[in-house]
Amino acid sequence: MIDTPAEQASASWIHYPWVWLVFAIPLLTIVAGFITFYLASDTRDSLISENYYREGLAINQQTDRLRHAAELGVTAELDLGRNQAYLQINLHKKKGTLPDTLSLGLYHPTLQEYDQQLMLHRVGSGHFYRVTRPRISPGRWYVSLAPEDQQWRLQGQMQLPLVNGKFNFTP
To answer: Which CATH class is domain 73-169?
Structure first.
């Protein structure tokens, strides 16, 4: 049955799908805006520091500690053996004595709750340091290594899982 022009003119706007499409786009945009506002206000951005100015000033001290590690000839190898129950660091230093403890920082690039700070203790009188192996999820990690007195520092980026289970720190 073919509708006459008079019947088409008297049909309600509800029966036309294009009208619904025109209304749906702005309505969905408003709903998406409220969802975005809720997510932005409900979650805390962990990448922004409260003390950003002080941390900015501390960057100069960190570069001095990196430079000092290069002057002392400090190198280290982080061993994350797959079947080992511990994490081990092999530390070499051309000048000065080796420290008794090392601080190893493992920092996730985006999730602050995964960050870890480990204290490694020297094994005997050698150049090996060990700690019980923590849980570390696969992915990219920023790592830093420093003695307890914070005189020097080594840092780098590693991608887990490591191919041979080892990561080398160089100044």
So the answer is: mainly beta
